[in-house]
Predict the 3D structure of the following.
Amino acid sequence: MTEFQPLRGPAYKNADLGVLSKELNDMLADCRICPRACGVNRIRDQKGFCRVGRDAYVYSYFSHRGEEPPISGTKGSGTIFFSGCNMRCVYCQNYKFSQMNSPAGDLPGKALSAGELAEIMLELQAQGCHNINLVTPGHVLPQIIAGLVIASGRGLNIPLVYNTGGYESPETIRLLEKAVDIYLVDMRYAAEENAVKYSLAPRYPEFNLSAVKEMCRQRPEAVFDAQGIMREGVIVRHLVLPEDISGTREVLRRLSEAVSPEKVYLSLMSQYLPCNKSGNYRELARRISMEEYSAASDNLSVFGFSNGWVQEANGLPELAGPNIEQKFRDNSTEGNKG
């Protein structure tokens, strides 16, 4: 078993966040933050696909107890949900703030200044959260880093988790090497036609795999503290969809060839729930079966993934109801727990 490594402080404590903040903010003038490269001037509050202009909108924030065990730990993950998104998943559970407008026609949630976002980060740290968990952060990265500049200067000292649907520009991810400690990244699809049909995300498999490779280059080894809380690393999430729309076997094959399957942590998720517009698609209008999830999980050993988690019951109609909590079961081998 690997011995615990001496723990470093969060990456952003040793970064020149001011320089990073300016570089990212400059990218908003002709927006190219994500693979869409809409080209709108968000500094002037123009809005592209994500529907977010100059200001970041926060829908909610709280101590989240339902993430993977080393993220939620015993005190919760300090989770911040941002409004808007650069995808349009027809089955998105967060569609009310990722895709819809408020009754007033604005994005749901509240537009926050950098100082207000910093206050949220510091509040979550004061609650005892193990980390700051940024959910759907890609389209508001400049605003997040501007807030991090202030929060770090005022004593923020817990890891930063980049929790993304995976439609990311590897060039943008490369800029985050000295800012992000943990990447919690989806790998949704093997086939581009499914990414376009169900998420309006052209070239998703290409951009996604390149971004994940860059994340693993930055954080090649998972690091945990004595309580088993992750301090650095990459967790790849894969949501099993009905009818193998996600292409699980091919996703895992490509991942195993791109990074070290013995080192990456994989979370195989069974919690798919038909919602949003999924009822318009016959193939998505049901939860996955036990047989589908079992077939998907068989691929973990086939491609050498020994660290991570499978979910018990979630998404399986024989065992789960629509409001069941996530239950993760450790799928790690004793020799690879770090």
Notes: The chain has a mean pLDDT of 91. The chain has one domain: 11-336. Residues 11-336 form a domain with the TIM Barrel fold (CATH 3.20.20.70).
